[in-house]
Amino acid sequence: MENKTIARTLRLLSQLMELHEENPFKIKSIANAYFKVDKLPFALKDKPINEIDKIEGIGKGLATKIIELLQTGELKELNDIIAQTPEGVVEMLGIKGIGPKKVLIIWRDLGIETVGELYYACNENRLIEAKGFGLKTQEEIKNAIEFKLAANGRFLYAQVEGFAKTLFTQLSKWVTKTENGSILGFAGQYRRACEIIDELEIVIGAEQIGAIKQNLPAFAPLSLIETENTFVCTTEAGFRIKIHPVEKAEFFLQWFKLTGNTEHVDKVLALAGPGNFTSEEEIYSKAGLSFIEPELREDFDEIELAKANKLPTLIQYEDLKGSLHNHSTWSDGVHTLEQMAVYCKDNLNLQYLGICDHSKTAVYAKGLNEQRVFAQHQEIDELNKKLAPFKIFKGIESDILSDGSLDYPDEILKTFDFVVASVHSNLRMDEVKATTRLLKAIENPYTTILGHPTGRLLLSRAGYPIDYKKIINACAANKVVIEINANPLRLDLDWRWHRYALEKGVLLSVNPDAHRTEGFHDMHYGILVARKGGLSADKCLNAFSLDQITAYFEEKQA
DNA sequence: GCCGTTTTCGGCCCGACTGTTTTCAGTCG
Q: Do residues A191 and A210 lie in contact, with contact meaning Cβ atoms separated by under 8 Å?
């Protein structure tokens, strides 16, 4: 069992114990163990059993629970407490904005046991009767439930990627057994690298189409049912899959049709006219357009650009020369500064690392006070001597306070090579307040990069609303780069605003916000949405070479 | 349930903010 699963199990246990009003200190220590396990730099399953209770924050009791989980995959104590809790009440713990205390009141005082009932209660204005609840809380809960319902059956790209690739390989083998020369391709949202996937689509082109169709229902990993020439199923997790067998001669036309969104497909086909095509390139060529990459086929402005032969050369992962906005054990990261740097240098062949630990306001994340900023800078100087020509840039993720100011005085801010300014508190502002707040941070002369501009967590939390045009215009005016936070839960700035930012001359930066060495690989997801946004390497800050970015930071500081 | 002793029991406890209160509890990052 992975650390993440163990950590989540412990968190659920602590939340349920809170619902059942058990000893708060006991709850606290289990919740603490959740944080600790989540931040361990090694896998618990590889640790000798007698060493688990030596880990800080994990004593005999928690070690026993962890060992039980590792050996049996289950925890009796958790199973028992789940059995005593209605399923819907457990589900309520996943609603943003309410914690165990409020869930307990909903359950015990209002007698509500399902999320559906809770939603009705909000609509009937019944929540305000409960102690500690008012109109605003009721509205927040209603909105959070609506957001959660809308996320039902939808998945992050990163959540489905592994499954999709495995399924594709298995399906290819299965189909090849019937016909060796068959062709397969991903289509739909997955091929367009959408940040959220509602359904996974695969096209199969084959000559013996009848035999393929006959055999598909027996393809064991799925339980496919045929409806109008398409084979569909929904996995246990609620993920919809569509498989389209088509005549081999029509494969490229069908693949094209099933990839782009409807508007894109209709517009291109209207230009291309009827015909049989031997490649997608041929379709675009007949339409008088340069080839449009799948990620761009959203009917944004890509057809006009293709007509004018002005499509950008989309950035690739290999274009990246460094990684900015990352954390280390100095704040809430898992790996040390040196481990993070060496990983970038040796495993990723990058030229530089920007380290941006949390600033002092983020106490929960061991944010750096002024003295520790100074101490970290000394360590960076030492490492830079050791790792040259690889370079660590002195950065900080400085909190944007409620009034838009950064949380260090100028004397400290000027000691950094660059500053990522991000919001981490007070996320429920309305558009006017949130925009004003960000504008002030952007106008701060020390702000180099605006971090995750809306604070959204895909499928889990809407970001605070902002006036995108005002924010982007201000970034252009103040030479502030906008982050594309590459964490697959964020992907913020949203790709739909990349083009506008690029038109205004704003640079973007694909930042993984890594809290451990593996986190750097999230740049892969950042690149996918950056391509959807139309980003080219020359407009991406961390595709700059070491010399270029050094010059860029120096110029900004001057 | 963990930790660190004043060594086997008592203390443990982010801070800002919000919404609900009329002095504070709950939630968040």
A: no
Q: Provide, in whole angstroms, the distance separating residue A300's CA from nucleotide B10's C1'.
A: 65
How would you write the pLDDT of chain A (558 residues) with one tens digit per residue? 899 999 999 999 999 999 998 888 888 889 889 988 988 889 999 989 888 988 888 988 999 999 999 999 999 999 999 999 999 999 999 888 888 999 999 998 999 999 999 999 999 889 988 888 988 899 989 999 998 888 989 999 999 999 999 999 999 999 999 999 999 999 999 999 999 999 999 999 999 999 999 999 999 999 999 998 899 999 998 999 999 999 999 999 999 999 999 999 999 999 999 988 999 999 999 999 999 999 999 999 999 999 999 999 999 999 999 999 999 999 989 999 999 999 999 999 999 999 999 998 888 888 898 989 999 999 999 999 999 999 999 999 999 988 899 989 999 999 999 999 999 888 888 899 899 999 999 999 999 999 999 999 999 888 899 999 999 999 999 999 999 999 999 999 999 999 999 999 999 999 999 999 999 999 999 999 999 999 999 999 999 999 999 999 999 988
- In whole angstroms, B6 C1' to A499 CA is 66
At residue A420, the 3 state secondary structure works out as: strand
Domain boundaries, chain A: 3-150, 156-307, 317-557
Do A3-150 and A317-557 show the same overall fold?
no
Which residues in range 341-400 of chain A are in contact with strand B, contact meaning CB within 7 A of any of its atoms? 361-364
* Cβ of A13 less than 7 A from strand B: no
Query: A69: closest CA among A48, A93, A44?
Result: A44
Nucleic strand B under 7 Å from the C-beta of A430 = no
Q: Is the pTM of this model over 0.90?
A: yes
**Which residues share a beta bridge with A406?**
A400
Who among residues 26-45 of A has its Cβ near strand B, under 7 Å?
26, 28-30, 33
- Going by C-beta distance under 8 Å and a sequence separation of 6 or more, which residues neighbour residue A80? none
Please check whether strand B approaches the CB of A501 to within 7 Å.
no
CA A320 to chain centre: 19
CB proximity list for A115: less than 8 A, separation 6 or greater? A88, A91, A92, A95, A145, A148
Nucleic strand B near CB of residue A93 (< 7 Å): no
| Domain covering A156-307 assigned CATH 3.90.79.10 in the classification | no
Does any strand B atom come closer than 7 Å to the Cβ of A288? no
Residue A81: CB less than 7 A from any atom in strand B: no
Distance A365 CA to B16 C1' (A): 14
Q: Which CATH superfamily is domain A317-557 in?
A: Metal-dependent hydrolases (3.20.20.140)
The three-class DSSP label of residue A367 is: coil
As a whole number of angstroms, the distance between CA A240 and CA A304 comes to 33
Indicate the CATH number for domain A3-150: 1.10.150.110
Short-list A258, A259, A239, A241, CA closest to A154: A239
In this complex, the residue with its CA at the shortest distance from the C1' of nucleotide B1 is A26
Å from the A429 CA to the B4 C1': 43
